[in-house]
Structure formats: structure tokens, C-alpha cells
Automatic annotation (TrEMBL):
Name under which the protein is recorded: NADPH:quinone reductase
Span of domain Enoyl reductase (ER): 10-330
Transmembrane segments: none
PANTHER family assigned to the protein according to its UniProt record, in alphabetical order: ALCOHOL DEHYDROGENASE RELATED, RETICULON-4-INTERACTING PROTEIN 1, MITOCHONDRIAL
N-terminal signal peptide: none
SMART domains the record matches: PKS_ER
GO molecular function terms attached to this record: oxidoreductase activity
Native source species: Ligilactobacillus agilis
């Protein structure tokens, strides 16, 4: 089957070639023929080897985390899906690879494609939708009347979180460059800060939650606007020792993460606020809810461009700019 893969970390360009077609080997697995996949910044981080402490992945490594496709075969214990159905998913993190014709995933990661859900939107949704959902409902458990600052509201994760937070009845403040302000207002943002010209710590009122997709100084400064006793959730900052322990890393890694994140710990202690690193996970049931929100028009996903498989490198280069105007889709087959 055709696949886009790397043979070592740090490889600059993806290799496009033929790799063996996978097959179902476990009772709860599903074989999917991929129709479309989407590119995420995490694909580039994995390619660079930045997630090696968290993910043990074999080489050659097919990149890609999101997909929409057709079920081709099922394991003996699969109960929710049948051959021929269209599905979407965020593939298991320890066995990634969606930039290819076929993949094998766990049944629990899949959602059924709702009738009338556009395939591009479906392939764009899983990773970013689940990230926003898990930040708001699992990590923050945010409630009506509370407030949130969302960094990079125009980004794929940020724009979904803006909409979910509004549905949940929160006051939403977000950062974006000027060209995206009108769009974010239509999504429901109450205040949009142009991060290129304004220091958000000077114009953002105290909030119950901050969601960070930028990391570094932006994450540290976020503790200046979060209310005491409240929470900063980051998907781009450094994991801390608490995360490392919960993730099952050994004591050495726990110590290394503690050391590396000491500035974050100091900032959160000073603010009397909590810090939590989110490493999103696949979840077919949550994904099914998100897909229903999209197909009923309550959740918008902005798609920037679809690339044919042969131009996947150009697609990844566009995402690497950090300023994509929406999700970037790869077409595997019709
Ligand atoms: N830990 C996890 O589980 C997890 C899950 C999902 C994503 N992530 C991470 O979260 C980050 C965002 O992912 P994404 O898919 O949303 O990315 P994305 O869609 O590629 O983000 C691009 C957007 O970010 C905006 N942006 C760039 N720099 C900014 C800044 N300094 N302040 C405000 N906005 C800025 C850009 O807007 P302008 O062009 O207007 O500047 C652009 O709209 C990535 O680092 C990704 O790896 C982590």
C-alpha cells in the first residue's frame, strides 16, 4: 500500500513509498481503508523526535493521527462496527500512521460517520476536537458563568474550544491576529486580543481558566491572568512530574520533567493556581458527540486546503508555518 513515512527521527522530508498492508490480529481491532487524513502539528513534532519520551514508535514510521475511511475487516469481538461502514478516528497513540491506504485501529477509538458529514470535515475533527473537548470537560470541568482565556483561538484546537466553551455558557476571551478577529466573533468569542500588538496580561481580565497552545513565555505569563485557586491547562508547555507519574513514566523521567518544568511550577505556586498538561487521548464516544455537533451545524471546523497524497510534503510544510488558516487535509483515495 502507499504510505508517507520516516525511517529515522529528524528526517526532514517524508518518504513516499510502498509498505505492507496491515491486517487485523486482535479481537477488538478494525481494518480501515483510509479516504482522507489530516495533518496536525504533532505529526511534525513526532517526525522531529520530540515525543520520544512519551511514545515508543517503531521505524519505518508512517505519520498521521486522524482519518476518515471505510471498514474493510473487523476482529472477532468487534460489536459496534460492520464492514462497509464509514468511520472516523484518532488512531491509537502507540501505533500511529494514517498517511497510508490502510490502517488497523482499536474499535474504542472509532466513531460512525454521521450521514451528510463532509469527509474533509470528518478527517479534520478527531485530534483537535478531542483535545478541546477533553480540556474543557475532563481537565477543567468548566461550568456556566465561568470565564476562559484561549490562546490561539484561530488555531484548529482553539477555534473548537471557543465554540464548545460558548455552548457551555462561559465568557470567552481569545488571542488571534487581526485577520481572524471577525471570524472568532462569529464563533462567539466575547473579546479577541491581537497578540501581535497587545500584551494579553494587560488587557485580559482575571479568568477561571487559561487554555494554552503556545507554551514558553505565553504559558508562564498566563499565570498572571488566572484567578487564585483556578487552572491553566496547556497542550504545548512542558509536562510536569505529576503528568509524568500519571502517564506511568519511571522515576528518572519524573525527575527530568520536574526539573524542566520548574519555572511553570514556580509561576503556578506564585499565582496560587493549578497547572495541568494535557496529552489528549483517542475516545470514540466523545468523538461521536463531536461529529454530531458538526453535522448539525453547531460546531464549525475551518478547512484550509486539501492536498493530494503526492503533495503531502507541501501540506506538512504549510502546517509547519504555524499560521495555517484551518485544517490541512490529505486525500488518499476517492
Ligand atoms: N498535547 C496535546 O495532546 C495536543 C493536542 C493538540 C494540539 N497540540 C498542540 O497545540 C498546538 C496548536 O495546535 P493546532 O492544531 O490548533 O495548531 P494550528 O491550527 O496549526 O495553529 C495555527 C494557528 O495558531 C495561531 N497562532 C500562532 N501563533 C500564535 C500566537 N503566538 N498567539 C496566538 N495565536 C497564534 C495562528 O493564528 P494567526 O495566523 O492569526 O497568528 C494560526 O491560526 C500545537 O503546538 C499542537 O502540537 C497538543
Amino acid at each position: 500500500m502507499k504510505a508517507a513515512y520516516i525511517t529515522h527521527y529528524g528526517q526532514e522530508q517524508l518518504t513516499l513509498g510502498q509498505l505492507p498492508k496491515p491486517s487485523v490480529t486482535q479481537p477488538k481491532q478494525v481494518l480501515v481503508r483510509v479516504l482522507k487524513a489530516s495533518v496536525n502539528p504533532v505529526d511534525l513534532k513526532i517526525q522531529a523526535g520530540k515525543l520520544r519520551p512519551l511514545l515508543k514508535l517503531p521505524m519505518p514510521l508512517i505519520l498521521g493521527n486522524d482519518y476518515v475511511g471505510i471498514v474493510e475487516a473487523i476482529g472477532t469481538a468487534v460489536t459496534n462496527f460492520k464492514v462497509g461502514q464509514k468511520v472516523l478516528g484518532r488512531i491509537s497513540k502507540q501505533s500511529i500512521g494514517t498517511f497510508c491506504d490502510y490502517l488497523v485501529d482499536q474499535e474504542a477509538n472509532l466513531a460512525l460517520l454521521p450521514p451528510n458529514l463532509d469527509l474533509k470535515q470528518a478527517s479534520a475533527l478527531p485530534l483537535v476536537g478531542l483535545t478541546a473537548y477533553q480540556a474543557l470537560f475532563d481537565k477543567m470541568q468548566a461550568k456556566r458563568g465561568q470565564s476562559i482565556l484561549i490562546h490561539a483561538g484561530a488555531g484548529a484546537v482553539g477555534s473548537i474550544l471557543v465554540q464548545l466553551a460558548k455552548m457551555q455558557g462561559l465568557t470567552v476571551i481569545t488571542t488571534a491576529s487581526q485577520r481572524n478577529h471577525a471570524w472568532l466573533t462569529t464563533l462567539g468569542a466575547d473579546q479577541v486580543i491581537d497578540y501581535r500588538y497587545n500584551d494579553f496580561t494587560k488587557v485580559c481580565p482575571p479568568v477561571d481558566y487559561v487554555f494554552d497552545t503556545i507554551g514558553k513565555e505565553t504559558l508562564l505569563q498566563s499565570f498572571e491572568v488566572v484567578k487564585p485557586g483556578c487552572k491553566v491547562v496547556s497542550v504545548a508547555g512542558l509536562p510536569d512530574a505529576k503528568f509524568a507519574k500519571a502517564y506511568g513514566l519511571n522515576l528518572i523521567w519524573q525527575g527530568l520533567f520536574k526539573l524542566a518544568s520548574h519555572k511553570i511550577t514556580r509561576a503556578s505556586n506564585k499565582a496560587d493556581a493549578e497547572y495541568e498538561f494535557l496529552f489528549m487521548r483517542p475516545d470514540g464516544l466523545q468523538l461521536q458527540r463531536l461529529a454530531e455537533l458538526v453535522v448539525t451545524g453547531r460546531l464549525q471546523i475551518r478547512v484550509a486546503k486539501e492536498y493530494p497524497f503526492e503533495e503531502i510534503q507541501a501540506a506538512c510544510d504549510y502546517v509547519a508555518t504555524g499560521h495555517a488558516d484551518g485544517k490541512v487535509i490529505i486525500k488518499l483515495t476517492d
